[in-house]
Amino acid sequence: MFRALSTITIAAAAGYLAARQLLADDAPQRIESLPEPARRPALAARRRLVAARERARIALNEGRAERMAAEAELTARYRDQAGRTTDVTQLPRGL
User: Fold this and answer.
1) How far is CA 32 from CA 20, 45, 89, in A?
2) Nearest-10 Cα torsion for 25, 10, 53, 70
3) Is the pTM of this model over 0.70?
4) Predicted confidence band at 83 (pLDDT cuts at 50, 70, 90)?
5) Which DSSP string do the residues of 32-52 spell out, in sequence order?
């Protein structure tokens, strides 16, 4: 059991480090210095990682936008139910 867990941990760490290297800014130059048989798989892996990173960035931005819209909707609903017409966070301090 310990051996399998160690192997999985080492493989995960190696995958993480490989992904970091493939996503680095200087990765295209490093890939070009690889032997010919290794270039095509490395370039394909980099393309997949860059595309996945972009999809994740888009999903995070959409999630932020949805959260902000939900917060605004809940705030407006609260103000309606509480009978508030003014946003108290916008009032000058000391009032």
Assistant:
1) 17, 14, 56
2) -140
3) no
4) confident
5) HTS-HHHHHHHHHHHHHHHHH
Average pLDDT over residues 15-26: 93
Per-residue b or e along 72-82, where b marks 16 or more CB atoms closer than 10 Å to that residue's CB: eeeeeeeeeee
Q: Which of 19, 20, 22, 18 is nearest to 30 (CA)?
A: 22
Token pair of 86 as six digits: 């003014």
Question: Which residue type does 70 have?
Answer: A
pLDDT tens-digit map of 30-66? 999 999 999 999 999 999 999 999 999 999 999 999 9
- Residue 73 structure tokens: 């909707």
